[in-house]
Amino acid sequence: MLIALKLIGGFLIIFSSTILGFNYGNRFTRRFENLYLLEQCIKILETEIVYGAYPLPDSLFNVYKKGNKKVSFLFENIRSNLLANKEADVFNSFLSVVNIAKEELNLKDKDIELLLSLGRVLGSSDRQDQEKNFRIILNQIRLLQEDAKMEMDKNEKLYKNLGILMGVAIVIILL
Amino acid sequence: MVLSFFLHIILACSYLYIKEGQVMEHKDIGIYEKVLEYISLELSNTLSKIPAIYKASTEEIRLRSGAPLNIYCMNKDYFVTREGMITNDKEKGVIVERSDIIKTFQLISNYSVYAFEEEIRNGFITLKGGHRVGIAGKVLYSANGIDKIKNISSLNIRIAREKIGISDKLIRFIIDYPNSIHNTLIVSPPQCGKTTILRDLIRNLSSGIGLLQGKGFKVGVIDERSEISGMYNGVPQHNIGPRTDVLDGCNKKDGTMMLLRAMSPEVIAMDEIGSIQDVEAIHEIIKAGVKIVATVHGSSVEDLLSRRSLNILVNDKIFKRYVFLDNSLGVGTIRSVIDGDKFTTIEKGVIC
User: Fold this and answer.
1) How distant is the Cα of B326 from the closest Cα of chain A, in angstroms?
2) Which of A55, A90, A122 is facing B115, going by the closest CB pair?
3) Interface contact A130, partner B, CB < 8 A
4) Tens digit of pLDDT for each residue in B12-42?
5) SS3 letters for A29-72?
């Protein structure tokens, strides 16, 4: 009877610590994925602006519609913030989504900084200039992706394995 | 008994008159308030406090960085204090900061400078509702002419108020019975309602109101400055009639060829002619047997003769009707209509 209880308890400990490890490990995967989706969104935005020359609120809405909703909802938030507050400018509207981007998309500070640098230049100059800025930002986001991928390869398995092993270790000690 | 009956009628009439007046004013105030949405928060708060009579008649709102806020209404200019009072004292006017100009420009361009490149290069942006915003600042050149305007220092927001029916009295002078019109030139000094009259004339010609048999003409409009139709996203913001095609932002020479080739117009309308190219374009139109309605800056026939390009048009007797405007009785007062063949006055004084 006692042994059965111990076994069940041990399983529970291993199970929960495994989930913990997976969760932590998945953060790296999610960052990489979201950076990839963000790149797609920025590419759509570039097309809307440089080739379509649609006004910014329309462009942002189109990004929301065409892009993957996991990330593109950011652009809809930016748009509604921009239209709702007369005193807001584009950069302020980008600032308003920083917290959401950090918490829900597992983005790091340097990823956020890149998003904000897009907000600083968006819509403030002619098409040629916008195109150049987009090129720079897309280059940078690719670097960030490489960085995210390296971290993912290095840490994802580590944390997952660590989760299981921790659980096992705790069970052994307690037994 | 009879007396009280008449009294009632008079009362009813005056009531209706007042009511109509209020409705008109309401609409004008509505237009003014729509325009305020494009002005930075602080200034629009100030401007929303000015008395209703000024709101209904404001023609221009002028923002100059470092200078007091200025509005034009009823042919005079006034400064606006922070409390929304109208004054002639420039010291009391609220000063427009550079940040106000930047913010207003952002709102006007919808945060999208890139979408208005061409318009900015031409010096103005058309807003929804057909209002035009003139831009002044530092002009940068490139190999192909003006490249862009930066460090914007002045904005002039011209409130467009279409006056439907303003040309109803004019139309009988330009009909050429049975079913054509005379080539017509509308001559007026600035700010006297040239474009407003032309726009309403286009509407009348296009819808056929006031014409024989009520049949409208196919009207082609070359709207070089986007003032006639106030095109916004491909939709005309003013009523220009059901048979009207608009070439927006097109210069008159190219526009004429395009219209004549493809749109088979019966009447071509254009704003502010004056250059030699315009004269060539008008000759093309005449050659194709199409009628023309145009406007020009000026105040008398001598004024027109003193300009080389217009001299050709007057001497060739291209225009059969000259309509002279002034603002002696409000914007769009028709002063006289002159026959272009014999230079005799057909109608003098205010036509109503």
Assistant:
1) 39
2) A55
3) yes
4) 545 444 444 445 567 788 888 889 989 998 8
5) HHHHHHHHHHHHHHHHHHHHHHHCCCCHHHHHHHHHHHCCHHHH
